[in-house]
Design brief:
By secondary structure, this protein is α+β, with helices and mostly antiparallel strands. The protein contains 26 helices and 17 strands. The protein folds into 3 domains: 197 residues, Aldehyde ferredoxin oxidoreductase, N-terminal domain (Aldehyde Ferredoxin Oxidoreductase,  A, domain 1, 4-Layer Sandwich); 171 residues, Aldehyde Ferredoxin Oxidoreductase Protein, subunit A, domain 2 (Orthogonal Bundle), CATH 1.10.569; 174 residues, Aldehyde Ferredoxin Oxidoreductase Protein, subunit A, domain 3 (Orthogonal Bundle), CATH 1.10.599.10.
Length: 610
């Protein structure tokens, strides 16, 4: 095979052994890389019912055939495992040099299993793999740990690591890299912590062999130029994802006060324009052409990186009105290795529960000092509230009982990212059917929905959701690359099969990638059904009751809420188009058509297949 290395690295922390394995060509052709590789390994190697925090779970870091090559925005790595937050499939991607260095060392993925008997980290240097003592790294934040690893092993390494949140098994701890990159919302950092694994470090000396180097070099040069010549390039570089903040406020989708409202009375103080006036520098991933990490000095005078999601969830969603204070909360989360989306949701839920009198502790909206202390309590599981919030919103809601689940803003256990959906049924459905729980990355349909009409429950929105899933949650998650050049600047999708074919020598079209995406989506859904022991129905794909029951009370859309009947109609269309039954379970016919017939026997043991 060209472009793929054809090898995976397996590291068993319990036995302190590492092995290099060749994987079959069929794996590459059917799953390509990244998310596809990770899901196939988890299906095959992690038995049904495995405790996500047990040595039997596996932590996987996987890249694709374009990773580390000279083309725009492919400095990404997928991290995956069975999720300790949701109990289903979990993954995320983050910008890091680890993926390119892993490829240079000769591997397309690393599978970590077992549990070290003491804090450890893995050092990969080509064929030499070491499991090293991490006593001097354990207990310190992600920024400091990365600096120490660079001091030990040089600046040209690739790293994946956790902060104290992962060490203390906060259920939404992420994997960190490059002093600001983060990925793995459903607790991928938690899985590392459960294995006493502080970090993975990779350093390689080889380059992947590609089919047509000359053609690829030219495509790379042309692609970089095309992106930088886009008319909206300068505007993007001014604010990055923070450009969307004002738009969200205007169209009443800015999450405010635990998604109770879609507008915030102090939105301007947290806007992209405000950030741009404070900005000191930008950060980005390897091979990035359009850096999205914009840094300001926080309220303590330290550099903190901002993007829309953390400003919305740690800002308006919890009533914060000072951007420098929001930046401090975000920096704390980054140092501790906590997902800012789940963190902002969980704190917002606790604040509302306190307001309603069903949580004993007093938590006021917008209380910066109490919130910053609470983030530390969560990271270190201090006190009963810190420990409860470390378990996630769904856990605390079930513990509180009463009507708490109605305003717990999560789906399948994963907290919702930064778009209120009282008046956005398409985006609500996109959250509902996302393959890891409520996340925007797979089908960010909200801008399309605003363009075509907010109040319609139609088949066209369902088609758009699946189209975006095939691109965002499919092709980009398998290759593995960043979607921003396409989304934000209009970089043509046809570039990607050109890059892929020049690297691999194959002749794929975009339709081949769409078929690949559908196969992976059906396998992920089958995994969820298997892990929930067949106790699965369409309610698993429902958004929180808040959006059906509690209408917006401010802004031009005051009175808006979701219609249950309309949502169900769209959900049924989605299932039909996916080839799944009315419960949301893939059918035998669909699994066979997608070359997943080997899934059928195991799935049939837990549920009736149609």
């Amino acid at each position: 095979m060209k472009a793929w290395t054809g090898q995976l690295l397996r590291v068993n922390l319990s036995s302190k052994e590492a092995s290099i394995e060749s994987y079959p060509k069929e794996l590459a052709l059917q799953f390509v890389g990244g998310r596809g590789f990770a899901m196939k390994i988890l299906w095959d190697e992690v038995p049904k019912g495995t405790n996500p925090l047990s040595p039997g779970n596996k932590f996987i870091a996987a890249v694709g055939p374009l990773s580390g090559l000279a083309m725009p925005n492919v400095g990404k790595t997928i991290v995956a495992a069975k999720s300790p937050l949701t109990g289903g499939y979990g993954d995320g991607n983050l910008g890091t040099h680890f993926g390119s260095q892993l490829r240079r060392a000769g591997y397309d993925l690393v599978v970590v299993e077992g549990k070290a008997d003491a804090p450890s980290y893995i050092l990969i240097e080509d064929a030499e793999v070491s499991i090293l003592d991490a006593d001097n790294l354990w207990g310190i934040g992600a920024y400091e740990a990365e600096q120490k690893l660079e001091d030990l092993h040089g600046k040209n390494i690739g790293t994946l690591m956790i902060g104290q949140g992962g060490e203390n098994l906060v259920k939404y701890a992420t994997v960190r890299s490059m002093m600001g990159r983060s990925g793995g919302r459903p607790g991928m950092g938690t899985v590392m912590g459960s294995k006493n694994l502080k970090a993975l470090v990779a350093k390689g000396s080889k380059s992947p062999e590609i089919a047509d180097p000359q053609a690829f070099r030219q495509l790379g040069r042309d692609g970089f130029k095309d992106i930088r010549d886009k008319p909206s390039y300068d505007e993007w570089m001014s604010q990055g994802t923070m450009l969307i903040h004002a738009w969200c406020q205007e169209f009443s989708v800015l999450p405010s006060y635990n998604f109770r409202e879609g507008q915030f009375e102090h939105a301007e103080a947290l806007s992209g324009d405000t950030m741009e006036k404070m900005k000191e520098k930008t950060r980005g991933c390897p091979s990035c052409t359009m850096q999205c990490g914009h840094c300001i000095k926080d309220s303590e005078g330290k550099s903190a990186e901002l993007d829309y999601e953390n400003v919305s969830l740690l800002g308006s969603n919890i009533g914060m009105r000072d951007l420098r204070e929001v930046a401090t909360l975000n920096r704390l989360a980054d140092e501790y290795g906590l997902d800012t989306i789940s963190l902002g949701n969980t704190i917002g839920f606790a604040m509302e529960a306190s307001e309603k009198g069903i949580l004993d502790e007093k938590l006021d909206w917008g209380d910066f000092h109490a919130t910053s202390q609470l983030i530390t309590d969560i990271a270190f599981r201090k006190g009963s509230l810190g420990s409860d919030l470390a378990e996630g919103t769904q856990h605390l809601a079930k513990k509180l009982g009463k009507s708490a689940l109605d305003f717990a803003m999560q789906i399948k256990g994963l907290e919702i990212s930064g778009y209120d959906c009282h008046a956005a049924p398409g985006m609500a459905l996109a959250f509902g059917v996302c393959s890891i729980g409520a996340h925007h990355k797979e089908s960010w349909v909200i801008t399309h929905e605003v363009d075509v009409g907010r109040d319609t429950y139609d088949e066209g929105k369902v088609d758009k959701i699946i189209e975006l899933q095939r691109i965002r949650g499919g092709m980009f998650e398998q290759l593995v690359g960043c979607r921003f050049p396409w989304i934000e600047l209009g970089f043509n999708l046809e570039w990607y099969p050109k890059y892929f074919n020049a690297a691999t020598g194959l002749k794929w079209t975009l339709n081949d990638f769409w078929n690949l995406a559908d196969r992976v989506y059906s396998l992920i859904r089958s995994y969820w059904v298997r892990e929930f022991n067949g106790e699965w129905d369409r309610t698993m794909d429902y958004p929180p009751q808040r959006w059906f029951k509690d209408p917006l009370s401010v802004g031009p859309l005051a009175g808006a809420k979701l219609d249950k009947e309309g949502y169900d109609k769209m959900l049924s269309w989605y299932y039909k188009k996916r080839g799944w039954d009315e419960r949301g379970i893939p059918t035998k016919t669909q699994l066979k058509e997608q070359q997943l017939e080997w899934v059928i026997p195991e799935l049939a043991r837990v549920t009736d297949l149609t």
